[in-house]
Design a protein that fits this description.
mainly alpha; 80% helix
Length: 107
């Protein structure tokens, strides 16, 4: 019986959290508009190219981390893969920060 109830409860909880988040966000935005705030404050004008660059670099970092972690697994054990994925993804986010700073387009 628990084999069925636990997954149902877990996914119901996740769905409930997502639904409450979107309902609350909508109410907050409507209240801000009613009080006269500018709708552009909601952050919709993010640069699509820069966001694509960020996630592209993270994907490259994860790939490089998986590759190097798998290569180092024989010497360092099972911890090598997640450690290298985290390290390489972090290095790519640092590279993204440096690129945006150099271009003058910080988000």
């Amino acid at each position: 019986m628990e084999d069925i109830l636990v997954p149902i409860a877990f996914f119901s909880m996740i769905a409930g959290i997502v639904i409450v988040y979107f309902i609350t966000r909508k109410k907050e935005r409507l209240a801000m508009i009613e009080k006269g705030f500018d709708p552009s404050l909601f952050g919709r004008e993010r640069s699509g190219r820069m966001t694509a660059l960020k996630w592209g670099l993270v994907a490259i970092g994860v790939g490089i981390g998986l590759l190097t972690g798998t290569a180092l697994k024989t010497n360092l054990g099972d911890i090598a893969i997640p450690a290298m994925v985290a390290f390489c993804a972090g290095a790519m986010l640092t590279l993204y920060y440096l690129i945006t700073k150099w271009m003058g387009k910080e988000e």
